[in-house]
Amino acid sequence: MSKKLKNFILFGIFIAILFISTLSSQFGTEILWSNENKDGDGFNGLLFKNPVEISDLVVSRSIENKNSKELVRYDVEFDFSGEESSLRILGTPVRQIFFDENITPSHSIVKLKGDYDKVNDQLFNEKLKHSQLYKNVSNYKFKANSEIRVPLSKDIERYSFSIYYEPRNLVYKGKEDVAKNTVFITNARVDKFVNSEKNIEGENPYFNQSGFYVNAQEILNKSAISRISIINNVSSVVFVASIIIVLIITWLDKKKLKSLYTLLLMFILLTFYRFLGLGESTLAILTIYPILAFIGACIAKLMAKNELKLSKKDLKQNLGYTILFFVVTLIVCIIPRAM
Question: Where do the TM regions start and end (predicted)?
Answer without folding.
Answer: 230-252, 259-276, 282-299, 319-338
